[in-house]
Predict the 3D structure of the following.
Amino acid sequence: MRPRIAVVGAGAVGGYIGGHLARAGHDVTLIDPWPEHVEAIRAGGLRLSGMTEAETCTVRPPTMHLTEVQSLVRETPIDIAIVAVKSYDTEWATMMIRPYLAREGYVASAQNCINEAAIAGVVGWGRTIGCIVALVGVDLVAPGRILRNTALAPEGDAAFRVGEVHGRATPRIRAFAAMIADIDSVAITKNLWGERWSKLCVNAMRNPVSAATGLSGNQRDRHPVARRVGIAVAGEAVRVGQALGYDIEHIGPFSPDRLAAAANGDDAALAEVEARLEAGSNVAARSDQQRPSMAQDIAKGRRTEIDFINGFIAREGAALGIATPANVALTDLVRRVERGEIAPAPDHLANIPLR
């Protein structure tokens, strides 16, 4: 029998994962707090689309509102709970699904940021795995409609990376990877923490810059100041992660050392990183409409994950005695935009220190 799967948080990422698992025939139930989204899926199905026609489909997985979760007590226990809520909602979402897990059931974090410890604090480390959404950019464009605006992963790369917290390739992580492979390419990592920090660096250099400026992903990477700010915050993040002892994986196409060098005044490294960022801002790899999740949150008037991305890097750096002025300044800027004190604009970046 196929495992019973619940996706807690069926927004852009969770809905995309759960929808395509349902498309592949897996037993998936979606759980979401937005009533209009839940009702739209129930009425007309969940419509998924991407940058190619082959990615377009409509699926009709069972979908429930948070207020209906207690009805799971009358159903078969959940084998796999995929938590895809915002980082600040991790603990309550995990606590909500915990009573309905099977005896051997476990929870996968398919989120930005590093939330495995928060999940393990609720269900235990033995019931916690990581699912890094590495090369998938998605947007919940309307109730019941999710758009992927990045290309499918190129051959030889992995759109998802999954791993156990202890790094071993267990039977359950192999089975989970095989399931995720029905969506896009996947790799099993033995270095979950290094992968997580690498993705944190990617998020730190992309999400808040778009959120603070209103620039799309491609516009951001074509903008000279926005590129420099992204490189500065990523360089600081690399230094903090290395000081914490993480074996940081490649950050997009860049080695962590090369990215840190670009941030630290190495002119050759800076020219190389900037050229590759600008070259990547093309519609074949990423739609011009693509905006990272934090920019989507700003546009929709929602709370962002800034305190769990750049704010987290700044706090970890402060605890180690490592200065992170770009991350501190960018965190403060996004908070001002988030509160509605200022509107997103590229001019705001002029006050972000680059060294």
